[in-house]
Amino acid sequence: MTERFPDLEIYLMKGDPAKVTEWLRSVLGEINAIKDTGTHQHWRSGGMDIYMNANAEKNFSSLWFKQNDTPWNTDLEAARAAWHALETEVRCSDSGWEESESDSGKEGWVKLNARGEKPFNW
C-alpha cells in the first residue's frame, strides 16, 4: 500500500490558473478563490488550502496542496492526473520529502509529457 503524503506539490509547465481552477473543480467540487495576484493564487476546497505560484522555477508553476484532502496519495498520482487533464508537462518529486542530517541533494524527479513518464535530475 502506498503511504499517503500529508501535502502534495507538482510543477506545471506554463500553468494556466484558469485551466487549473477548472480541473480542480472537476476533481474536488467547490473551489473558493481566496487570493489572486496574477502570479500567485490561493484557493480553498473544504478545509484544504491550495496555492499556485506562476514563477516557481523557470517556465514552471508550482501547485501545492497544503493539506492532502485529495483523491491522490502521492505527488506522482497528482502529477498523472494533472497531465491527463491539462495536457502540459508536469514534474514532481519521485518520493516524499524528508529532512535529514545528510542532505545529499539527490532527490529524484519524474516528468510527464507527450513522450511519456520518466525520471530525471532537475
Question: What would you note in describing this structure?
Answer:
The protein is α+β, with helices and mostly antiparallel strands. The chain is built from 2 helices and 8 strands; from the N terminus they run βαββββαβββ. The chain has helices spanning 17-28, 75-86, and strands spanning 8-13, 32-36, 40-45, 48-57, 60-65, 90-93, 109-113, 116-120. β7 and β8 (116-120) form a beta hairpin. The longest helix has 12 residues, at 17-28. The radius of gyration is 14 Å and the shape is globular. The two termini are 28 Å apart. The mean pLDDT is 92.
Rounded to the nearest angstrom, the distance between the terminal CA atoms is 28 Å
Largest sheet: 8 strands, antiparallel
Oligomeric state: single chain
Overall 3D form: globular
Tally of helical segments = 2
How large is the share of residues in beta strands?
A: 35-45%
Low-confidence stretches: none
Task: Pick out its properties.
122 residues, alpha+beta, 8-stranded antiparallel β-sheet, 8 strands
